[in-house]
Amino acid sequence: MNPAAGEQGSSNAPESGEPLRGSTDVRTSGSHGPECAAPEGPGSSGAPVVGAGGTIWARDYSLSDAKTWLVRRPKLLGLVAVYVVYFLLLDAPLWRGPGPYNDHTSPRYGQTCPATFFGNRIIVYEDNLNIGEAVAWWRGTFELPFRRLDTALFEGRILNAYPPMMTLIAAAVVPFCAEGVPQVLLAVLLGLPLPGLAYGVMLKRTRRVWMAVVLALALVCGTSVLPVLRWALRSSQVYHVNHVLAVVGQLVMLAEFFGRRRVGVMGVGLMLAAWSRQLTAFYAIPVIWAAWRGAEVPSGARVSSRRARMAQAAAVCAVVGGVPAALNTLKFNRPWDFGYRYLYEGVESEQADCARIGIFSPAFIPRNAYALNLGFPKLKREYHGWRLVTNFQGTGIWWTSPLLLYLLPAFRMIVMDAASRVWLAAAALVVVGILMYHTTGMFHQGHHRFSTDFVPVLFALLAPRWDAAGRPWLVCVFALCGIGWFVSLP
User: Fold this and answer.
1) Buried b (16+ CB within 10 A) or exposed e, 236-269
2) What are the tens digits of pLDDT across the range 79-119?
3) Which of the residues 273, 377, 418, 473 has an alpha carbon 20 to 30 A from that of 68?
4) Residue 181 phi/psi, 5° resolution?
5) Of all helices (H) and strands (E), which one includes residue 376?
């Protein structure tokens, strides 16, 4: 026996029988009593080391220990469950290799886009207009190289009319990646944060972890968020990428609003949303309200003054509105002109009437209201029989995401709560803008992509009501119905 080893063993042996910190569980037997006997059972093997204080059993942590550690942390276990189910249902590539240019208006249509980032495809102008604009910025201009689908033609210049969030992100990357953005970066920005943020919001709004898991999956996989995210990862088109960025922004705002209500964090979410989808700028209303009211904190806790919070909110709103206004002025000569009416300049399109009627008009409400609320599929007769065809203008949210039907009985409870009432009013303004817009978004395959501008807010408002419902199994059934519908879409 080595006396030095024995002394070291007795000095490190814990008196309470708890394991030492690190990767080894150390237990003693002998003079310390039967409660410190040699470990038994699966994963408890280890070699005895005899010291002055008795026998020390040393063993490495096994997989069963990791499972036990995880089970004792139900919130973390719920997060893991959300991500596991999410990745099983996503059905979209997080890593894309070389492929053809899909835009038929591109001179390089059908040619293979080279993969130049460790075998990962580079997303370029033919894939996403905002990336083309970011490349143009580095060349000292706003003009795009050639006219392609959904580009604006203004005073002989070809310009991008879509919001600038993705352009700002791409501008930080394109100089280093062959004038493009690696597709894996889009996957990290779009695909990874969504389920975690959704789970975090639902966890703040419910009392039970399993309910937060169900509602987070219902939001991400049981609404139009799932097909929009799929198309964003598959095609990288500007429409779907902007929708997902706006959803991420909404979830950041909601998580902070129903938590510590830090104006700066909510401002980041507002920028993500409003610089991706302009109508979500109405969510500045809850940010201002939160700055005025402040957060509920324990007595004695340090909190910023109302004047400081309102100053932060004013700065956030100035930046959120000022950056797009400056870009609009530089491109279209007017801060309020986003350039959408120039998308149809010289183009024959069903939406070209917006140049005559306007981008927003009450004349579009009947068509848009039907597509958003009902939008039933149609039966089409073919040579081999009848086939169910999804509505071209959009599919109704109430029967594809039946959990939203609970808004009707829960409406009174929502409006009685001041914080929920503010969010509901902001979401209502977003819906009014969508109903008056000159297009429904079109090309919807069993979903309505514009609904992603307000559905996350409705889920956050309804979550406490679902959690308090007398029949939780019915909530699960409705959630599974929505998930089943959207997972089955191509």
Assistant:
1) bbbbbbbbbbbbbbbbbbbbbbbeebbbebbbeb
2) 999 999 999 999 888 776 666 666 656 666 656 666 566 66
3) 473
4) -125, 125
5) none
